[in-house]
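To fix ideas at the outset, we first show an illustrative case, written as a sequence plus integers encoding its fold:
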Amino acid sequence: MDEFTLIQYIQDKQKLHQINLNNKNIPITIGDDAAAVMPPDNHEIIITSDTLISGVHFFKDSNPKDIGHKVLAVNLSDLAAMGATPAWFTLNLTLPEINKAWVTKFCDGLFSLAKKNNITLVGGDTTKSLENSISITITAIGYAPKNKAITRSKANPGDGIYLSGEVGLAGYLIEQIYNNKNLDNKLKQEYIKLINNPMPQNQLGINLRDIASSCIDISDGLCADLYHILNLSNVSANLYMDKFKIPKMLNKLTQDQALEHILYGGDDYQLCFTAPKNVSQKLVNNKTINNQIFKIGEVIASKSEKNSELFLIKNKNKIKLKNIGYQHFSNN
């Protein structure tokens, strides 16, 4: 299989998943030098892009189907945080060799999630890697009504802080894989599968357009990502220990150990958002939203401009939390 056969094969796999390729909003699709897409009237285009590299963002012995799911999921999660409706994506696939069995499983994971979220592959590129590594870049494109996209910069004192689900599990599982030398291989594979199959919260993001004052997805850790909101909004925040939900697998840890994963672990891809008090009833009344979220804290005013701080209220003690999480190009 050569490069052009590979491209055609990926196109055929998309058709097999019955993804709509004749969408009127895609006047030019795969086959030309570039694609042309059209958002609905009075909507803005929302664009995001992520690169995932083997050995860095996913384990080299990961199931290709799970890799296909994850590379699209992390991009969909960014669209979810903006309240955008997923529409189109491009795929840049860099492989050491063309392995048809690997590509088949990869496409099954990729297009299965694409179909669930009504997003269509419209182009991309394939190339050979110089080393024995895999690099995958997806650019996802969505749309939102004009001036309705949710940003990170509009949180205000008094807003509640919410999570769309539990966080901390992925970071714990990654730590177990790297540090537990006695970890059974079967259990290791179960952990890898859990890490590689986050479920992006796109419908929730859309439902939050007229409710959330700010939003971000949790990829690098709760504290690190929440600090992005605080810094851009020039505010601070309190988190409350008794409001957190601890994942079942972390119950065997001490409270402090579990808290460390919840605050600083990454790769969960849940949404963290803020919402003003005057829309709190909307959160309660909307079952689509209320069934998923829980409140973990409150936005407060900063002591000085551009000096955002994040605190944990634990047993009546106020603890300042560090602005740390996963960082690219870090030696730590």
In short: Confidence is low (pLDDT under 50) at residues 327-332. Residues 101 and 114 are 20 Å apart (CA to CA).
